[in-house]
Write a structure and sequence with these properties.
Shape: globular
Structural class: alpha/beta
Order of helices and strands: HHEEEHEHHEHEHHEHHEHHEHEHEEEEE
Helix content: 25-40%
Strand content: 15-25%
Strand order of the largest sheet: 3-4-5-6-7-8-9-10
Number of helices: 14
Length: 455
C-alpha cells in the first residue's frame, strides 16, 4: 500500500480487505462456470474404433470474450503512422473481441452518406465499420457493434418530428441488419438510457418531439430486422450499473426487468465500469465504497444475473494517474482483481476494456490538448509510445497463462476419455499407431458433452 497516495489507499481499502469467502467463491466459480468436460469417441479412417491414443489439446481461443474497442484501428497519421502496426499486434496478442463503432453521427454524418466501406472519409476514432469487421475476420476476433442509437452522439440533420424520427430509426436499423447481421453477433441497441444528458434534450426535447418509449421502440425494430441469434444488448453507464444497490429495487434492474416483461428482445445487459470519470480524487474516494467493494460488485452481478440474460462488462476505464500514487501499480492491481471477479461469475459472457492507448480517449468538443477529457486519467493499457503498461501484462498473464488449457490425455477405447478445460476452440494432436492427426474441436457450455469424430 505504500506505493499509493493517501487517497489511493482509501479507495482500495475494501478491495484489499482479507475476504476468504470471496477468494473461495472466485476459485470455485471460475472452475465450474468457465470449464467443461468433453467425452471423445474416436474412430480410425477405416471406421474402426481407435483402441489407444495420446491426445494433446491446447486452447486457441476462449469462448468467453475478452475485448476492447477498436476505435484506433489505422487511425494514427503522419509521424505517428508507425503506431498502427503495433496497435494491431498488441490488440490481437491480448484480445479475442473488437468493438465496431456505429455512432450515428459518424456512421451517417449526412443523410444517406453512410461511412461503411474501408476508405470512407476519415473521422478520428471512427474507423468505418467494414474496416473493423474485416480486421476481426482476418484475425479471428469476435465482433461487437456499439451502439445503434445513443442520444449523446446523434446526427444534426435528424428531423425534430417524432414520427419522422421513428422512420429514421427504422431505416438505420434495417440498413445495419442487412449489411452486418451475418457478421456481427453482438450489438448494443441503446446506450445509457438512464443517463439522458442535456444534449439529448437540447436536440429533441425542446420541441416535445422525442418519441415516447423510444428505447422500447428501438428494441422492437431491432428484433424485427435482426435474427434471433443476434444478442441485442441494452448498455448502461457505470454509475447506474454499479451504484445505488437496492436489491430488487435497483434502478437498472427495474428498467431491464420492465423491458423483458414487455416481451422485448433484450438478449444481453452491458455494464460499463469507468471508475476514472470522477472529476476529482475525493469523488473517486466517495464512489470506491461501491465500485471497489467486492461484496457490492457480486451483489450487482447476482441481481442482474437473475434476469436470465447474459451480462457483459462493456466499457472499462481504470486510471493510472499519479494522483493515486504509483498509477501504473494502481491500475494493474485493480484490473487484476476486477477481472477475476467478473470472469468467475456464471452470468458474465464478456469483458471489454475501453481505450487501448493513452491519449486516444474521447475528448469533449473544444478540448485543445491530449491531456483533457478522458485522457487525463491515463486509462489505456499501452502508453502513448505504445509500450505495455503493467496492467496489459497482468491481463495477458490472466487470459493466456492462468486461464488457459494445454493438457495431454491418454485415450483408451473403454476409458472415460474426457478432455477437461476452459471453454473455447482447441488445436488437437492425436497420436495413434497409424500416425499423428491434427484436428480442431470446441469445448463449450453450448454444445453437446460428447463428440464423435473420425480421424
Amino acid at each position: 500500500m505504500s506505493a499509493f497516495s493517501e487517497a489511493g489507499q482509501k479507495t482500495l481499502s475494501k478491495l484489499l480487505a482479507y475476504t476468504p469467502e470471496f477468494d473461495a467463491r472466485i476459485k470455485c466459480s471460475t472452475e465450474i462456470s468457465r470449464k467443461r468436460a468433453l467425452k471423445l469417441l474416436i474412430t480410425a479412417p477405416d471406421g474402426k474404433p481407435v483402441e489407444r491414443a495420446t491426445i494433446r489439446f491446447k486452447l486457441r481461443k476462449h469462448e468467453f470474450r475478452f475485448g476492447a474497442n477498436a476505435f484506433m484501428l489505422n487511425q494514427f497519421r503522419g509521424e505517428e503512422a508507425w503506431k498502427n502496426e503495433v496497435y494491431i499486434e498488441k490488440f490481437t496478442q491480448l484480445f479475442n473481441q473488437a468493438v465496431v463503432p456505429f455512432y450515428w453521427d459518424a456512421y451517417e454524418p449526412e443523410k444517406g452518406q453512410l461511412r461503411q466501406e474501408t476508405g470512407s472519409p476519415y473521422i478520428y476514432r471512427r474507423p468505418p465499420a467494414d474496416e473493423v469487421v474485416e480486421f476481426c475476420e482476418k484475425h479471428g476476433l469476435y465482433a461487437k457493434g456499439h451502439p445503434m442509437v445513443w442520444h449523446t452522439l446523434m446526427p444534426k440533420w435528424l428531423p425534430r418530428n417524432q414520427f419522422r424520427l421513428l422512420d429514421e430509426y427504422e431505416r438505420l436499423i434495417a440498413g445495419i441488419a442487412e449489411r452486418y447481421a451475418g457478421k456481427i453477433r453482438w450489438f448494443d441497441v441503446y446506450n445509457e438510457g438512464l443517463q439522458l444528458d442535456s444534449l439529448f434534450y437540447e436536440i429533441y426535447k425542446r420541441d416535445g418531439n422525442v418519441p415516447d418509449h423510444h428505447i422500447e421502440k428501438l428494441f422492437r425494430l431491432a428484433g424485427k430486422y435482426f435474427p434471433a441469434s443476434t444478442e441485442l444488448i441494452y448498455n448502461e453507464g457505470p454509475w447506474m450499473s454499479w451504484n445505488n444497490y437496492h436489491n430488487n429495487y435497483t434502478p437498472l434492474y427495474l428498467h431491464a426487468r420492465r423491458l423483458l416483461d414487455l416481451g422485448l428482445p433484450v438478449r444481453g445487459l452491458g455494464l460499463q465500469y469507468h471508475i476514472a470519470f470522477y472529476g476529482n480524487i475525493q469523488r473517486l474516494v466517495d464512489w470506491s465504497g461501491e465500485m471497489l467493494d467486492p461484496a457490492h460488485i457480486f451483489a450487482h452481478m447476482d441481481l442482474y444475473g437473475s434476469l436470465g440474460i447474459p451480462l457483459n462488462v462493456s466499457e472499462i476505464t481504470i486510471p493510472a494517474e499519479n494522483a493515486l500514487g504509483d498509477g501504473f501499480a494502481y491500475q494493474a492491481l485493480v484490473a487484476e482483481k476486477m477481472y477475476r471477479f467478473w470472469f468467475s461469475h456464471p452470468a458474465m459472457s464478456a469483458i471489454t476494456w475501453w481505450n487501448m492507448v493513452d491519449n486516444t480517449a474521447f475528448q469533449a468538443p473544444g478540448a485543445i490538448n491530449n491531456n483533457q477529457g478522458e485522457n487525463r486519467y491515463l486509462g489505456g493499457l499501452l502508453n502513448n509510445d505504445m509500450t505495455e503498461k503493467p496492467a496489459y501484462k497482468v491481463l495477458y498473464d490472466l487470459i493466456h497463462r492462468e486461464w488457459t488449457t494445454d493438457e495431454t490425455l491418454e485415450y483408451e477405447r473403454e476409458g472415460a476419455n474426457k478432455l477437461y478445460g476452459f471453454c473455447g476452440d482447441y488445436d488437437v494432436a492425436i497420436k495413434t499407431d497409424a500416425g499423428t492427426f491434427e484436428k480442431q474441436l470446441t469445448i463449450s457450455k453450448f454444445e453437446p458433452a460428447v463428440l464423435e469424430f473420425q480421424l
